[in-house]
């Protein structure tokens, strides 16, 4: 247990200095705990996943404020709980614009391969695309923007209208899930 705690503290310190592998380690280490905690409150998978992403984004933004006297997991769950409460408050006080929300919710994607998809298939990347398409749509989009459209984080922030920390966490999560899909197919 002491060794595990030392690894976590070491990863936190490295992440504070911008080490991306440490961010990935922390995300992988605590994703399930945070996700399960939020899912138990929301009972809705998509909402739980969104709040989990926002939790890690907030935590990674505020990593300098983490006090090593406390457990990192407890700190993350506190952030998750606060975000959940904030969301409840927002839902209770938000004026609903049905037309705007319906256009987003009922957006139907064309499953016919685009010319870009056909070109990729011709270049023997059909298998990779099949794996990517197994991801949830928001993960597909973030992988597409980063690796196929070669957008920078800054460009993705503008395109998706989300904070850079959310973009980075979603991309980390998308890459992890894609790796799991690829490994499961072997």
Automatic annotation (TrEMBL):
<dbReference type="InterPro" id="IPR007627">
    <property type="entry name" value="RNA_pol_sigma70_r2"/>
</dbReference>
<feature type="domain" description="RNA polymerase sigma-70 region 2">
    <location>
        <begin position="32"/>
        <end position="91"/>
    </location>
</feature>
<dbReference type="InterPro" id="IPR036388">
    <property type="entry name" value="WH-like_DNA-bd_sf"/>
</dbReference>
<keyword id="KW-0238">DNA-binding</keyword>
<keyword id="KW-0805">Transcription regulation</keyword>
<dbReference type="GO" id="GO:0016987">
    <property type="term" value="F:sigma factor activity"/>
</dbReference>
<dbReference type="InterPro" id="IPR014284">
    <property type="entry name" value="RNA_pol_sigma-70_dom"/>
</dbReference>
<feature type="domain" description="RNA polymerase sigma factor 70 region 4 type 2">
    <location>
        <begin position="126"/>
        <end position="178"/>
    </location>
</feature>
<dbReference type="GO" id="GO:0006352">
    <property type="term" value="P:DNA-templated transcription initiation"/>
</dbReference>
<dbReference type="Pfam" id="PF04542">
    <property type="entry name" value="Sigma70_r2"/>
</dbReference>
<keyword id="KW-0731">Sigma factor</keyword>
<dbReference type="InterPro" id="IPR039425">
    <property type="entry name" value="RNA_pol_sigma-70-like"/>
</dbReference>
<dbReference type="InterPro" id="IPR013324">
    <property type="entry name" value="RNA_pol_sigma_r3/r4-like"/>
</dbReference>
<dbReference type="InterPro" id="IPR013249">
    <property type="entry name" value="RNA_pol_sigma70_r4_t2"/>
</dbReference>
<dbReference type="Pfam" id="PF08281">
    <property type="entry name" value="Sigma70_r4_2"/>
</dbReference>
<keyword id="KW-0804">Transcription</keyword>
<dbReference type="InterPro" id="IPR013325">
    <property type="entry name" value="RNA_pol_sigma_r2"/>
</dbReference>
<comment type="similarity">
    <text>Belongs to the sigma-70 factor family. ECF subfamily.</text>
</comment>
<protein>
    <submittedName>
        <fullName>Sigma-70 family RNA polymerase sigma factor</fullName>
    </submittedName>
</protein>
<dbReference type="GO" id="GO:0003677">
    <property type="term" value="F:DNA binding"/>
</dbReference>
